[in-house]
Specification:
single chain; alpha+beta; N-terminal domain of MutM-like DNA repair proteins; Helicase, Ruva Protein, domain 3; 2 domains; four-stranded antiparallel sheet; about 25% helix; binds zinc ion
Length: about 280
């Protein structure tokens, strides 16, 4: 599932590969996504110019010159592809083509949990998509005090709290495990027991791990618009995620005694951790 680093990488790839230019045409082949693409999507975006690309949590917002924003979420399996062929070749699960002066933006989503719609600029901040979101991991307002206040009444494991988008918006399942490993905090700890100092470490680890992943994604950008459809997503070097039974990096645990990295299920999602390093 695309997480914040993949979304940031995708957003940067769109800005670099298509940039600011005019939308010439659009074609919706399949509108049944998580929420149906509006019937007038094409009419509303036609001939507008793209002014900017931003990321809000795991949403990509494409600002247009006609006071609309295109809002996109990659869902479980969505991705954008760029094509510079005319006409672009349509592959399986390519649901939308947006033709611009600088190439074609293609939304592809095999499982169709993604989202592609538009909204009036003025409605953006109070739209239902963003209204309940907590702070972005890179927001300057994300302080240890903010996190501690949010956690202090929560009687749930810290791993589950990190996935709560109303606290920090954009941490997904893979990075929640990686962040807790980096911060030396067990996923089993109850949120209200996390100290202010540990909140500081959690925020530091969150920024560090996500930035590393974004940087790693950035390095594959040059492959992003291969016509063969190779993806811009990177294989991030995970320390614990999906590493059950393996020793953790720089860990002094004795594998025979500890069994290596543990896998547990919390709120229906897998968590991976080193019980020796993470307390
Ligand atoms: Zn270990």
């Amino acid at each position: 599932m695309p997480e914040l680093p993949e979304v940031e990488t995708t957003k940067n790839a769109l800005a670099k590969g298509i940039g600011c230019c005019r939308i010439l045409d659009a074609c919706v082949f399949e509108n049944r996504l998580r929420i149906s693409i509006p019937d007038d999507f094409k009419q509303r975006i036609l001939h507008a110019s793209i002014l900017s690309y931003t990321r809000i949590a795991k949403y990509i917002v494409i600002k247009l010159s006609n006071n609309l924003d295109i809002i996109c979420h990659l869902g479980m399996s969505g991705k954008f592809k760029l094509s510079y062929q005319n006409p672009p070749y349509r592959e399986k699960h390519d649901h939308v083509f947006i033709f611009t002066e600088n190439g074609t933006l293609i939304f592809n989503d095999p499982r169709r949990f993604g989202l592609l719609t538009y909204i009036e600029n003025s409605q953006l901040s109070n739209s239902s998509f963003f209204a309940k979101l907590g702070l972005d991991p890179f927001s300057p307002n994300l302080s240890p005090q903010y996190l501690w206040e949010k956690l202090k009444n929560k009687n749930i494991p810290i791993k589950v709290a990190l996935l709560d988008q109303s606290i920090i918006a954009g941490i997904g399942n893979i990075y929640a495990s990686e962040i807790l490993f980096d911060a030396h905090i067990s996923p089993l700890r109850i949120a209200h027991d996390i100290s202010l100092k540990e909140c500081y470490f959690l925020i530091e680890s969150t920024k560090k791990i996500l930035q590393k992943a974004i940087d790693a994604g950035g390095s594959t950008l040059r492959d992003y618009h291969k016509p063969d459809g190779s993806e811009g997503y990177f294989q991030f070097m995970h320390c614990v995620y999906n590493k059950t039974g393996q020793p953790c990096i720089n860990c002094s645990c004795h594998l025979n005694e500890t069994g290596g990295i543990q896998k547990i299920v919390q709120a229906g999602r897998s968590s991976f951790y080193c019980a020796t390093k993470q307390k």
